[in-house]
Amino acid sequence: MYKINVDRIEELIKESGLKKGYIAKKLDTSITTFRRWLLEETPLPLLKAVELADLLECKVDDFYEKEI
């Protein structure tokens, strides 16, 4: 089983130099919804994960870690 690795996503965002508001706009979502994904209050939809990976120039796999 895999779970989202929010710390890794935050790290990738920081490395990209992109602002969260800009990312939310590019993902065609509100900053509130984007923050909810990062806080794990709501699941990150697969299509948005793919779009986010494209923006951050990484793979969707980079957002997840294997649960122990």
TrEMBL record:
<dbReference type="InterPro" id="IPR001387">
    <property type="entry name" value="Cro/C1-type_HTH"/>
</dbReference>
<feature type="domain" description="HTH cro/C1-type">
    <location>
        <begin position="9"/>
        <end position="63"/>
    </location>
</feature>
<dbReference type="GO" id="GO:0003677">
    <property type="term" value="F:DNA binding"/>
</dbReference>
<dbReference type="InterPro" id="IPR010982">
    <property type="entry name" value="Lambda_DNA-bd_dom_sf"/>
</dbReference>
<protein>
    <recommendedName>
        <fullName>HTH cro/C1-type domain-containing protein</fullName>
    </recommendedName>
</protein>
